Amino acid sequence: MLAKLNVVAVVAASLSAVSAQTFQRLGTCPTLGCVLPPDQSDFLPGQLFDLRVEVHAPVNGSEAAHDGKPDEKFKVTIAKEGKEPQDIAKAFKIEEPKLEKWTFKWYEDLFAEDNKTPSVVNVASKAYRKLSLNEAGKYTVTLEYYGGEKTTAEWVVRPIVKERKAKNVIFFIGDGMTTNMITAARLLGHKSINGKYQTRMQMDEFPVLGHQMTHSIDSYITDSANSASALYSGHKSTVNAMGVHADSSPDPFDDPKVETIVEIFRRITKGAWGAVSTAFLADATPIALTGHTRRRSEYGPLIDQALNGMTNYSWTNHGGPDVFFGAGAEQFFAGKGTYQGKDYYEAFAKKDYTVSLNKTSLEKIDISKRALGVFCQSNLPVWLDRNVYPENLESFKNDPKGGKKPALDLPGLKDMTLKAVEVLHKRGGDKGFFLMSEAASVDKQMHALDYDRALGDLLELDDTVRATIKKLKELGIFEETLVVVSADHGHGFDVWGSADTEYLSKQQDERTKRNAIGVYEKSGLSQYTEKPKNLNYGTGVNFPANWEPRYAIAGGVGAAPDHREDYKVHKSGPREPAVKSSDGYVVNPKDAPNGIVINGTLPTSEAQGVHSLTDVPVFAMGPCQETFGGTFNNVDIFYKMATCLGLARPNTSSCKPKKM
């Protein structure tokens, strides 16, 4: 979900809010001197990055200082542990960049926002582009300004590891997926007898299980953009940012960049890479593989970056994806949704991509060629609507060519992923491949409090993982492929019992309705695996045999707007739990009208649920699997995958420092 930007309307810089306080002048910059990448940053040996330093001079507010005049004669040095500091430009043997100046505004707190009294900050800054550190160890960057004030950043370059243990990596992301959701999905899709499951989820069979912490760099609740960026680059960032450390400049595309895993993989190995998602392809998780901006809503330019790479600065040429499958046609057919109104179907075709707009054409593509597949507008309809209630598809106006007809010939996550593996295996050859495959609507339906649809997509993810492992074995590449399944963040979802949906709907009193909830011994057994007479969805094993049992799971999230719950599947289509009123978002009178009113726990400006603090699981199988056990930071996913691929090595094509 796109996190809201809490910014002043007149702010030139889309600064992220929220950390220890509601607003920040600039995340990671508690003093008036800012170093980006900031303190505690890690780097892969040879990984490209930009360095930006800023000196702030607040004009008004509690921080007002220096008459609003930033020090333009600041000094920046870098020192490896045990060595003398060197001027940053001389250390990297580059020309001193020009001085940049700008002004931005921000609110110090909610009172200032209510009173519309922003604080004004003048800035002096420099950006040092396309650097890399090739020697492992600790480094200190020091910014000196205002005649004695200092800001320091301690950096660590991880060890050099040139040995390549995995030829390929497949990284599955269940967006928003938590252990509690996996547990609930297992209950729905797998039969239990006397407390023992008769079948297991594919994730249950992975040999290694770990957990990752998902905090942002300047807030403990993350969004999908900067969490994906952490997973792909090893650098935490700010909400809404990807592939950069968010600065305060007016331009959302000039923030200091960090090189992502597919950029490094292509630079070093020349192998193939691809992305598959059930979201629109410009959405955070797929596009963060190549995206470099602090504003994730720049959908058109981000698709251009995916195809053409960075065009405003010298940077790694990732060459474009070998596979790009998903939705979001409005960023491809010519119109207001694309970069400069261009036709990106045509742009991809001109670079010798096959272009598929439906499942039928996807199945027939030439796997020796690069492939684009865009199957509808917006997000792909969820598994439940595609497989159990397909009549709902008729109500969509999501033709991938831009019309208002429904897209009906749709692939699922499994179809797209298996075809992607075929293409990448063919094109990568001896050089290998990297694939990211995302089940996006686990998150999107959790936001909408549509738990059945979320869990259906989670079961689709597990089914896709199972089929992919089978495909790897058929291709003879299972032993040389690292498979990782994880999430980018979580939601506070859990199940606490069962709900007698018939009894609940027939009660008139709110408190009496709650007696329909069965807890402990009254929760009973799952009815989702009991097949009713004359009902067969044709969805196969490992999926529910009955999506409409009388006794449904009673579950929910801790963070939600006002809404009703009747615990029944929403047969007619995706859920809208709250609607806007003059007093913010309130219970949708058309949603679960016979349900229980659940008072919201969020600001009345929030229409949906939000992300939570929870750690998320990490499953690993294949080369380097043993490194994924335990609990670790989300950035470590990047370092573990990159090291397994042999990418932790010096860079010969960047501005690198002389011996320190």
From TrEMBL:
Entry's EC annotation: 3.1.3.1
Q: Where is the signal peptide?
A: 1-20
Q: How is the cofactor bound?
A: Binds 2 Zn(2+) ions.
Keyword terms? Magnesium, Metal-binding, Signal, Zinc
What this protein needs as a cofactor is: Zn(2+); Mg(2+)
Where is Mg(2+) bound in this sequence?
175, 283, 285, 438
Q: Where does Zn(2+) bind?
A: 443, 447, 488-489, 611
Q: Which PANTHER family match?
A: ALKALINE PHOSPHATASE (PTHR11596)
Q: What's the protein here called?
A: alkaline phosphatase
